[in-house]
Design a protein that fits this description.
The chain has one domain (about 5-69). It has two helices and five strands; from the N terminus they run βββαββα. It has helices spanning about 40-50, 65-69, and strands spanning about 5, 20-25, 30, 50-55, 60. β2 (about 20-25) and β3 (about 30) form a beta hairpin. It is globular and about 40 Å long.
Length: about 70
């Protein structure tokens, strides 16, 4: 899976607001959000929560449960 822009009020469908990203687990579909803006801060926080995978938004990424399996 990948990190994708979440649906942001005030942003037209199809437009991307890259400041509001959601990380999705390739194993189970679990999502991870963080209050900070930007990929680097999201990934750093996710790693601290046990997520594993490539340090690029294109993935793959795995939550702490799937990454431990």
């Amino acid at each position: 899976m990948t990190a994708i822009p979440s649906s942001t009020p005030g942003v037209a469908p199809g437009d991307r607001d890259l400041s509001d990203l959601v990380l999705i687990c390739d194993g189970c579909g679990r999502t991870f959000r963080h209050d900070e803006r930007g990929w680097d801060l999201l990934w750093s926080s996710a790693q601290g929560a046990g997520w594993r995978g490539r340090d690029r938004a294109v993935g793959p990424h795995f939550c702490s449960w799937c990454g431990a399996a």
